[in-house]
Amino acid sequence: KNHLSDRINSMSTSATLAMAAKARELKNEGKDIIGLSLGEPDFNIPEFIKEAAKEAIDQNYSSYSPVDGYADLKEAIANKFKRDNGLTYGPSQIVVSTGAKQSLANVAMVMLNHGDEVILPAPYWVSYSDIVKLAEGVPVEVPTSIDTDFKMTPAQLENAITPKTKMIWFSSPCNPSGSVYSKEELEGLAAVLRKHPNIFIVSDEIYEHINFKGNHVSIANVEGMYDRTVTVNGVSKAFAMTGWRIGYIGAPEWIAKACNKFQGQITSGANAIAQRATIAALNAPVSSIKFMIDEFHKRRDIVLELLGEIEGFNLNVPEGAFYVFPDISSFFGKTLNGTTINNASDFSLYLLEKANVATVTGEAFGNENCIRISYAASEKELREAIARIKAVL
Ligand code: PLP
């Protein structure tokens, strides 16, 4: 008998982390694996942030912090929201957590009751669906395709809404598609939501700076949306601080208070040293990370060009984040070097086994026709990986 809870038994393992583990295993066996499965910037943390962390240790920031974060960190976050997003959030509207992943889990746990529906435009970030289910919510996937640049239209949103709809969760720039919603597109969605005042929004903006097109737009800034939007962000992607585990929200005060209460029973708050370092990160001008964004932009263009040379890859042009999400369904039903490819998982595994390149199946993100390739890797690795992929196809 399995003595574990139904809760954990029904949860899927994070597909991105599973792929990374598998790639690591093969690497340990001596295989020359190129890992393009993780959403992790391959840069070092900028020096000034490391210095702030060292100072914090020396200044004995070793006690519990306030559950929702240090007051001066919340002030830095408020200034950041104002500076980058034109959003006004006071300290009582901000909660600092152990990564944006925990911020999302907090929101799910305080907002959802059993059976509440959460609309997820698919492809969506891998964890949304399981976080929602953990909170007894019901994920309602709205499939999009490469034909609409993987974005949900207002009509699709309207059709997905039922009396049970409680929330909509999405990321822009999107992981995994790299798509960025324009102001007009967000206004289109907001026009539908204005007719449904009891639907709340989670706007995951963790890739906001990694945007090659122009200005990032926060849906909380669109008319009527501020009072029902939780804006989620963090330092993992913009500052290459994935392992430091700091994320945060700006939200209506009643939601922030509930998250604070919840977190008080679960973690007691985020790591003190990482919080101090985050103050330095957020207070720095955005120009201090422009080098990373320029580098991602360059790599995106290289990856698109090289993948575009492979017959059977159907590509959109991602405008942000650091992923491409090619539609590879033209390979379904084909047999390559003795392996039959029936779906995106088969394709991704085939690339791992035959080309020694780790990618992630689109099925993990609610899309069966695509795979995700992260270009948070060096140009040399990317060129080598794509050459190998081409060779085995
Ligand atoms: N949201 C999206 C869209 C992500 O891609 C990620 C990380 O991959 C997260 C949230 C979680 O970030 P954090 O490291 O802050 O938990």
From TrEMBL:
<dbReference type="GO" id="GO:0006520">
    <property type="term" value="P:amino acid metabolic process"/>
</dbReference>
<keyword id="KW-0663">Pyridoxal phosphate</keyword>
<comment type="similarity">
    <text>Belongs to the class-I pyridoxal-phosphate-dependent aminotransferase family.</text>
</comment>
<keyword id="KW-0808">Transferase</keyword>
<dbReference type="Pfam" id="PF00155">
    <property type="entry name" value="Aminotran_1_2"/>
</dbReference>
<dbReference type="InterPro" id="IPR004839">
    <property type="entry name" value="Aminotransferase_I/II_large"/>
</dbReference>
<keyword id="KW-0032">Aminotransferase</keyword>
<dbReference type="GO" id="GO:0030170">
    <property type="term" value="F:pyridoxal phosphate binding"/>
</dbReference>
<dbReference type="InterPro" id="IPR050596">
    <property type="entry name" value="AspAT/PAT-like"/>
</dbReference>
<protein>
    <recommendedName>
        <fullName>Aminotransferase</fullName>
        <ecNumber>2.6.1.-</ecNumber>
    </recommendedName>
</protein>
<feature type="domain" description="Aminotransferase class I/classII large">
    <location>
        <begin position="31"/>
        <end position="389"/>
    </location>
</feature>
<dbReference type="InterPro" id="IPR015421">
    <property type="entry name" value="PyrdxlP-dep_Trfase_major"/>
</dbReference>
<dbReference type="InterPro" id="IPR004838">
    <property type="entry name" value="NHTrfase_class1_PyrdxlP-BS"/>
</dbReference>
<dbReference type="InterPro" id="IPR015422">
    <property type="entry name" value="PyrdxlP-dep_Trfase_small"/>
</dbReference>
<dbReference type="InterPro" id="IPR015424">
    <property type="entry name" value="PyrdxlP-dep_Trfase"/>
</dbReference>
<dbReference type="GO" id="GO:0008483">
    <property type="term" value="F:transaminase activity"/>
</dbReference>
